[in-house]
């Protein structure tokens, strides 16, 4: 269908350097991706093809960024979707969207002369949730189609497809998805520690006029304990807005501290609103 067009625009190349912290996740991901890159060796050793990687962890920690970086690292095209796009009233619609997604990935890769494609499905638990026995859900067919697509991937395929799924509720996933030959690798993407937060703040400070004589991002990282990468990006952005409103030239430590409070408050109001 035409619904997904906006998301399949040529993605800006994303590299692992643009992702702050997450050192362990990055390393595990690169190790897994090397299975895709070193095709000849893989077949020589008779190793089963890597079909799926599952990224698990809280929202806003960089799972989408990691999937995009995985596509650049393997010189693949990137196609992104969200689990909720496949939930439909009518039986079979979700399944046919899955089929279309894989088909589109193969066609796009072939058209661009790439030998592989990365398909990223965020909120994979929405389609891959546990099937509880008798109760048939309309989207069981969607999950079955996803399993069929995964089972149909072979090492010698050209283009090769790699599915990357993301969820923050791994325990909800149907065991069929977690079996070897489906999501072969599970990589945890956690909230960043202080070092990670400093790194992320630095990345998002790059195009911003910081008062370098005064600003101490390590201190901001200390004050933002428990923040995700997405929240830290917001902190930098809100600080820039405060600085601009004051007609200042530069972003100061005070602007950054105010921004931390703002982002923290925002989270609280969001949570209250959804109660
Ligand atoms: P969700 O599960 O909610 O989809 P996610 O884990 O996929 O979240 P991303 O979409 O990758 O999170 O991150 C959202 C935004 O937050 C990014 O576009 C980026 O600006 C910022 N961000 C998150 N994590 C990082 C990180 N590790 N380094 C730099 N920026 C980050």
Automatic annotation (TrEMBL):
Tell me the GO BP annotations in alphabetical order. Answer: proteolysis
**Keyword annotations from UniProtKB, A to Z:** ATP-binding, Coiled coil, Hydrolase, Membrane, Metalloprotease, Nucleotide-binding, Protease, Transmembrane, Transmembrane helix
- Domain AAA+ ATPase, which positions? 49-193
The GO terms describing molecular function are: ATP binding; ATP hydrolysis activity; ATP-dependent peptidase activity; metalloendopeptidase activity
Where would you say this protein principally sits, based on its record? Answer: membrane
Where does it live in the cell? Membrane
What is any one of the record's Gene Ontology cellular component terms?
Answer: membrane
Q: Can you tell me which family this protein belongs to? A: Belongs to the AAA ATPase family. In the C-terminal section; belongs to the peptidase M41 family.
Record's protein name: ATP-dependent metalloprotease FtsH
Q: Which residues of the full protein are shown?
A: 56 to 330 of 498
